[in-house]
Amino acid sequence: MSFNLTTRSILDENYCLVLPKNSWEVFVFWKFSDFKISQFEKGYYLKNIIFRVLDENKNIVADVPCEWARAKFYISLPKFVNSITVELYAENSNGKEKISVSNEINISYEKEIKKEYTRI
Amino acid sequence: MSSKINHIFILHAHLPYINHINSNYIEENWYFENVVESYIPILRMIERLSNDGINPKLTVSLSPTLCSMMENEILEKKLKRYIELRLKLIESETEINEDERIVALLDFYHKKYLEALEFLNKYSGDLITPFKLYQNQGLIEVITTPATYPIIPLTLNRETMDAQITLASNDYKERFSKDLNGIFLSECAYDSRVEPYLKKNSIKYFFVDDNAVDKTKNSPYNSYKTDNGITFFVLDYLTSERIFGGSSYLSNPLYRDFYRDIGYERDIDYLKKFTLSDQRIPTGIKYHKITDINKPLKDKEVYEIEPAFNQADTDSKDFIEDMIKRFENYQGDPVSVSCFNMELFGHRWFEGVAFLESFFRNIRAQRYPVQMYTPSEYISNNSSPYILRPSISSWSDNGFFDKWLNDKNDFIYPYLYEITRKYIRTVNRFINSSISADVDKALKQLTREILLMQSSDWAVLINYDTHKDYAIFRLKTHYENALKIINDLNSGSLDFDFLKRIEQENGVFHSLDWKSFATKSSF
Asked: What ipTM describes this predicted complex?
């Protein structure tokens, strides 16, 4: 086997998950069921999916587009938040469809303090 | 002004579980080098201090994977062979070297390796016993880490977090015959989501890096409690700055140079007889001093033992005096927590164990206003009135998790998540049914494979491009082993030869309870 990332899930599920890289950037990865992949491949959805980043109060922090087949993506947070969740939307002519909601992760409460420390 | 400084000194030791039955991987040498150059010299130092009536009250963090290696009979045999071959290499080097300074150094190395062998024989090859003994004598407090050293904030399943803490706690109880009081979260990486599992296992304290608290509002020299009533200590970054920073002790021209090693200089055919490797690897036999950190390796001068060890004593006094000076105007009695990788002392910093020993002796002899504490002792004498929620953080790089999560190694997490979910489904299928001994055995080994894949070491090795192939090999092996066992369990036909083979190699956590991973809740 080789560790090549694809959007195909061995669990045959649609999901997206988020991990904190640091307090200003998060890592998102997502997987789709075989059925959902076939919908993307057949053009039922637009090529780009949207990641909606929500803060702890469910306020929208950012809407970030990304190609559906990339399988992973880093999102830079435009503002300081305590915690986030990410919603994954697919789009077509009927509008946006929420496919999945990620886990919630803690970010930080003191973003500006972090950067002053550089480890050797 | 503070009347005394309360000091907690932690030596943290972890290695990924590496145990290969029929082949020699150079990565196994990490363990052998650390045992000979750091773990045994530190244990012998504790013994000497104790014999002289000095209680170091040292805190020792030993990861469960390292503890498993310390009790592994295959590794014990390989370790003895490693020491014997190094002794032969030293003897061979003594015959060909004429410089008196090098001959004196070789004599020093010879004694050191012989002492390591004697120490291992004294404890029948089991290094856990002396740690346990010194803990029972009140000389040290041993704590542990999550089971296979995952980065907690990068852990995606609650079941994983629960299992990693619960297994570590149970493993500790079994090994050290007492309850676990404190934990060193892998790489000091904290996320408040871990606290319910710390509480569930009655863990009383943990540590955070100093960037986990806002120092403009809260002193890093207090202990705190979280909302869950668990005490946490903040690492004193300035103590490590003295050792690692710009004008640190580690760069002193008198100290032995770490990088120049005869393993990179002698003829490879000559070395092979002693290293059993076709590759050039460090042998631990080094003849040169740092001289000048800007000088190329070829221009380093020959090392001399006595001035270097005298310097270690001088530096230990400076370390203490600098700490006292920093707290001169501090209101109240601070608690300063120094934490270092154990391998720093002896292995990376040849004179490091001498530095440590001088540190403990000088506090006593010079009557410095420094009171050594183990964390448990400190907590029982000083109940913290402050409640604080630390931020997610780690002690590495920029204080976060970039080292374990970046373009080079991020592929690990989707694979890890999916195989862990598949595994949890399998565990859930069997949890309430009566199962055969064979299925139980298969589920145990499956759990080991998942746990070993969760180790953060693979991501680090890939990040630094050092031993990257080995890290990918290990990730693949554990993933494929886990997938095969899951498929075999689902089809009802277990492959016993396969199970027996992988159990021998990856037999960490003998008495683990696979039910720890069963679903309690999920994201």
From this structure: 0.93
Closest chain B residue to A110, measured at CA? B214
- Burial of B477: CB neighbours in 10 Å, binned 0-12, 13-18, 19+: middle
pLDDT at B6 over 70: yes
Q: Does A85 touch chain B (CB under 8 A)?
A: no
Chain A residues near residue B215 by CB distance under 8 angstroms: 113
Instruction: Spell out which chain B residues touch chain A, with contact meaning CB-CB distance below 8 angstroms.
Output: 153-154, 156, 191-193, 210-211, 214-216, 237, 244-245, 389, 391-393, 395-402, 405-406, 410-415, 417-419, 421-422, 472, 475-476, 479-480, 523
Nearest to A1 among B395, B405, B476 (CB): B476
Residue B442 has pLDDT above 80, yes or no: yes
Residue A16 neighbours by CB under 8 Å, 6+ apart: A28, A29, A30, A31, A51, A86, A88, A99, A100, A101, A102
In a domain, B97, yes or no: yes
Q: What does the pLDDT read at residue B339?
A: 96
Chain A neighbors of B480, CB-CB under 8 A: 1
Distance (Å, whole) CA B82 – CA B75: 10
A103–chain B Cβ distance below 8 A for any pair? yes
The closest CB to that of B401, out of A4, A20, A119, belongs to A20
Cα B265 from Cα B258, distance rounded (Å)? 14
Question: Which residues constitute the domain of residue B501?
Answer: 412-517
Q: How far is A92 from chain B (nearest CA, A)?
A: 27
Element (H, E) at B29: helix B29-34
Residue B231, CA atoms < 13 Å, CB-side half-sphere: 18
Residue of A nearest to B158 (CA): A103
- For residue A28, the chain B residues in CB contact (below 8 A) are none
Nearest residue to A92 (alpha-carbon basis) of A59, A68, A72 = A68
* pLDDT band at residue B246 using 50, 70 and 90 as cut-offs: low
Domains of chain A by residue range: 15-114
Report the alpha-carbon distance of residue B315 to residue B269 in Å, rounded. 40
Asked if residue B214 is part of any domain, the answer here is yes
Q: What pTM, to 2 d.p., does this model score?
A: 0.95
Q: Please check whether residues B249 and B126 belong to one and the same domain.
A: yes
When CB atoms are compared, the residue of A1, A103, A108 closest to B523 is A103
Whichever domain contains B161, its CATH number is 3.20.110.10
Is A60 within 8 Å of chain B by CB? no
Q: Of A104-113, B120-129, B169-178, B428-437, where does mean pLDDT reach its minimum?
A: A104-113
With respect to residue B403, please indicate whether it lies within any of the assigned structural domains: no
- pLDDT at residue B306 is higher than 70: yes
Q: What is the pLDDT of residue A109?
A: 58
Biggest CA pair distance of chain A: 53
What's the fold here for domain A15-114?
A: Immunoglobulin-like (2.60.40)
Give CA–CA dist B32/B69, Å, rounded.
10
Q: For residue B211, what is the nearest residue in chain A, using CA coordinates?
A: A114
